[in-house]
Amino acid sequence: MAKILLETNELQKEYRKKRRSLLAVNHVDLKVEEGRTLGIVGESGSGKSTLVRMMAQLEKPTSGEIYLEGRAYSSLTKKDQWESRQKLQMVFQNPSESFNPKMRVRDIVTEVLSNYGKIRREEKETKARSLLEMVELDPNFTSRYPHQLSGGQRQRLSIARALSIEPKILLCDEATSALDVSSQAAIIDLLKKLQKRTGVAIVFICHDMALVGNFANDLAVMYRGNLVEYMEASKLKQEAIHPYTRKLLASIFSLDKAPDADQVEAPIKNPPRELVEKIIQENQMDSIDSQAFLQKIGPKHWIACS
Ligand code: ADP
Ligand code: MG
To answer: Which of 73, 102, 170, 277 is in the most buried spot, having the most CB atoms within 10 Å?
Structure first.
């Protein structure tokens, strides 16, 4: 097994608004491994962004813990937090929102290095050019402004800025969702290439099952804040069991867009424990590996049951 870089343990995030409370993330246990891509899929509102924002230390969990290379986030001093943030870099859906429109490409792409005091002013142009080349952008773009680039080019810029500091983990939150199909494919090809070269682990959040299923090594399926199935992406079509995973799979083959989680009429239920136990027996696995809410039904396959 590849080295575990990040681990979440019974991670929970509750939002309170007046008297109502919402469990955006409910007891999620996940691992991020070196050199691999973890896909997180689920309809809008299922808690994907909240989960990844906690991983990036942009948001504090209500309970549970995150371990980065074995160290608990809750044990980090302010200085340690700042240092460890280098190891996880994020790429968002709309890169324009994270770019200062008055900054040139040269300064945008070297911004993280500057923040960490890892680059001198006179080194910026050379470094910027090599970072642009890394993401297959024209190095002569250094003097441009972000609005002079296309959506796909801006997303490449965002990836270059994130990778400039050589993070261990790249967190992509719907990073390709605003792009057309061919730009999406090109960005995914690029991410694969960069991963091969650097070994960076990727967490790729996406509401599009077809896209993430093809790209990720491991797949976590979220439904209303819960992790309902976790498995190797290559086995998705043959071995996915949870009704919600099956529903997402079915939607790949239909032209209708899957409805938002809030608009689903009947909530999807976890399969009954008896069914899951039967699968475990058929797979000749001796005992139920009891993670809090998930049951192990294969060497690398967990499912929520009731
Ligand atoms: P996803 O990324 O899967 O679309 P989110 O993590 O953005 O889901 O949201 C999960 C749930 O938490 C949603 O119901 C959303 O409305 C709610 N939520 C997210 N952020 C906040 C916040 N800052 N305050 C209150 N509720 C929030
Ligand atoms: Mg989101």
So the answer is: 170
What is the phi/psi pair of residue 51, to 5°? -60, -50
Q: Specify the pTM.
A: 0.90
Q: Between vectors from CA 26 to CA 220 and to CA 277, what angle results, nearest 5°?
A: 65
Q: Amino acid identity, residue 178?
A: A
Check pocket membership of 252 for ligand 1, CB cut-off 6 A.
no
From the alpha carbon of 261, which atom of ligand 1 is closest?
14
Q: 26: Cβ below 6 Å to ligand 1?
A: no
Cα 160 to Cα 132: distance, rounded to the nearest angstrom: 7
User: For the segment 25-48, what is each residue's pLDDT rounded down to a tens digit?
Assistant: 999 999 999 999 999 999 899 999
7 pairs with which residues across the strands? 31, 67
Distance from C-alpha of 231 to C-alpha of 235, rounded to nearest angstrom: 7
Q: How far apart are CA 75 and CA 268, in angstroms?
A: 37
Q: What is the DSSP letter of 279?
A: H
With a CB cutoff of 8 Å and minimum separation 6, the contacts of 85 are 56, 57
Nearest CA to ligand 1 atom 24: 15
Q: What would the pLDDT profile of 147-157 be if each residue is shown by its tens digit?
A: 999 999 999 99
Q: Measured from the CB, is residue 48 less than 6 Å from ligand 1? A: yes
Q: Residue 249: phi, psi to the nearest 5?
A: -60, -45
Q: Do residues 296 and 289 touch, judged by C-beta distance below 8 A?
A: yes
